[in-house]
Design goal:
By secondary structure, the chain is an alpha+beta fold. The chain has two domains: 67 residues, SH3 Domains (SH3 type barrels, Roll), CATH 2.30.30; 53 residues, no CATH class. 38% of the residues lie in helices and 18% in strands. The chain contains five helices and five strands; from the N terminus they run αβββββαααα. A five-stranded antiparallel sheet has the order 4-3-2-1-5. Strand 2 and strand 3 form a beta hairpin. Helix 3 runs antiparallel to helix 4 and helix 4 crosses helix 5. The longest helix has 13 residues. The radius of gyration is 18 Å and the shape is elongated. The chain starts with 6 loop residues before the first helix and ends with a helix.
């Protein structure tokens, strides 16, 4: 804990947690915070020591410290475009929709880059939709 962040790691952290990225708290080591795991917010900026400052939905602006706290990116919800692309792939009858790799490849062949990205970013939400027909 309390490691100094390298310039390479700082640049990667700034790219990963760009302005406006939606995040969820996994672990916060600050004993005085009211934030708890599962709280969500939007990234404001990453400072020079790697702290990711977040405008939390509960009004807090506490940062997630590098090498002490943990946050994760919240994938964007499934769009109407992705939903239509899933249904178009299914309509071809060329693959089992649970074969994620085959669906991904078919989506790429069909020019459905939004679907391919969605499968790569949020396989869980894709699977949930295939099982239930509901968006997460």
């Amino acid at each position: 804990m309390n490691k100094v962040i390298s310039q390479t790691a700082l640049e990667a952290r700034r790219e990963k947690y760009a302005l406006g990225t939606r995040v969820e708290l996994v672990i916060m080591t600050d004993p005085y915070t009211t934030l708890k795991p599962g709280d969500r917010g939007v990234v404001d900026h990453v400072d020079d020591i790697g702290t990711v400052f977040v405008n939390w939905d509960n009004g807090s602006t506490l940062g997630a410290a590098y090498d002490a706290d943990e946050i994760k990116i919240v994938p964007p919800p499934m769009s109407d475009v992705v939903r239509e692309q899933i249904l178009a792939v299914r309509a071809t009858g060329k693959t089992n929709m649970f074969d994620v790799k085959a669906v991904f490849e078919l989506a790429m062949q069909m020019g459905f880059h939004e679907l391919a990205d969605f499968i790569f970013i949020d396989t869980r939400a894709y699977s949930h939709f295939i099982l239930t027909g509901e968006r997460v």
